[in-house]
Amino acid sequence: GVRMRMEGREEMQGAVGLRCSWDIPPPAGTQAKWVRLNVGGTVFLTTRQTLCREQKSFLCRLCQGEELQSDRDETGAYLIDRDPTYFGPILNFLRHGKLVLDKDMAEEGILEEAEFYNIGPLIRIIKDRMEEKDYTVTQVPPKHVYRVLQCQEEELTQMVSTMSDGWRFEQLVNIGSSYNYGNEDQTEFLCVVSKELYNSPNGLSSEPSHKAKV
């Protein structure tokens, strides 16, 4: 019984050890040091700890000051010649790990900045989001267009075999004999065919096209 209890306790300790790597405090001496960044004329105030969440990022290398000699403005803020509009969401992502965007903010703009600052996890999140959006936009259900063609029995096989591309045979309605040519009874048929029209996102109808993702 004692051994069982011991094993159980060890498992518990193991579980506690599984912490997100972001929770690990940075080396002593770097903590709680405030960093000012002047991004395209807008000053952002953050901590070294936040900027170093993503070890490989430009921002982490910048505030460690190893190989990047960046100019500073008169307040001592690092000068970064990028668009400040998109820097807010990037900084917030480093703070809490979530991507939060205003509805009119272009994801392409964020992606551009995430790639510049080299923030891998954020690049992946944005690309996934853009692909999902892409996917939902292009998945417009097709419209069905129906046509009814009237023909005689002997023309039927020819008509079905020469049906143009995209048209599909739906059903055949026998409407009986309406004409008498001498003794020949010609049975008349109504032939119903349908075609799918795909609506492309810009509102124009188009044939189904399978665009390859480049």
TrEMBL record:
A UniProt-annotated Pfam family: BTB_2
Listed InterPro entries: BTB/POZ_dom (IPR000210), SKP1/BTB/POZ_sf (IPR011333), T1-type_BTB (IPR003131)
Domain BTB, first and last residues per copy: 33-134
GO BP field: positive regulation of cilium assembly; proteasome-mediated ubiquitin-dependent protein catabolic process; protein homooligomerization
GO CC terms, sorted: Cul3-RING ubiquitin ligase complex; cytoplasm
GO molecular function: cullin family protein binding
Protein name per Swiss-Prot or TrEMBL: KCD17 protein
Organism expressing this protein natively: Platysteira castanea
Gene (name only): Kctd17
